[in-house]
Amino acid sequence: MxxxxxxxxxxxxxxxxxxxEIDFHNWLGENWGILFSHPADYTPVCTTxxxxxxxxxxxxxxxxxxxxxxxxxxxxxxHGWIKDINETQDTTVNFPIIADEDRKVSELxxxxxxxxxxxxxxxxxxxxxxxxxxxxxxxxxxxxxxxFDELLRVIDSLQLTAYHKVxxxxxxxxxxxxxxVPSVPNEEIAELFPKGYKEVKPYxxxxxxxxxx
Length: 213
Description:
alpha+beta; Antioxidant, Horf6, Chain A, domain 2; 4-stranded antiparallel beta sheet; 31% helix; elongated; antioxidant
């Protein structure tokens, strides 16, 4: 099947997880979501990743984000691995890990890349908005752990730019100035951006982050 692209609807599925059966779209509800895959249980990089996500629970909650992980192993394996994650990462895994032994979800989301590995999932990340549309995809090789600070930064940008007529420049972090999107004419800037703006070039207009007091 064709790879999923930005703006596509995230495919729905029903699957068994470490927290019971979920209907993915119903489980997400009105929240934002992260779905991310792991090559296999009991692998070192994945162990650190799932431990990190558990420690970031408060940050995800602040952003109204629900997180689900996936690997092609079964529930018994997942539950045993969670004990290791909790022990070695000094945390408590508190989000569902999807059991995908039949590769159904992996194939639905094109998470198996045969030229990398014909059996195991790559490190896919999908950020999904409340309308169930895919807003971000990132694919990492099995050997490279993900940067969850970067995922939080991206979600901050996605949530900001979804509701305000701005974009975020290179290396932007929350609290820093934003770019006014080109479709906003200068005549409307005063009303939309009462904090003012700086015109660097006619197409490059900077303004303080609009959703901060």
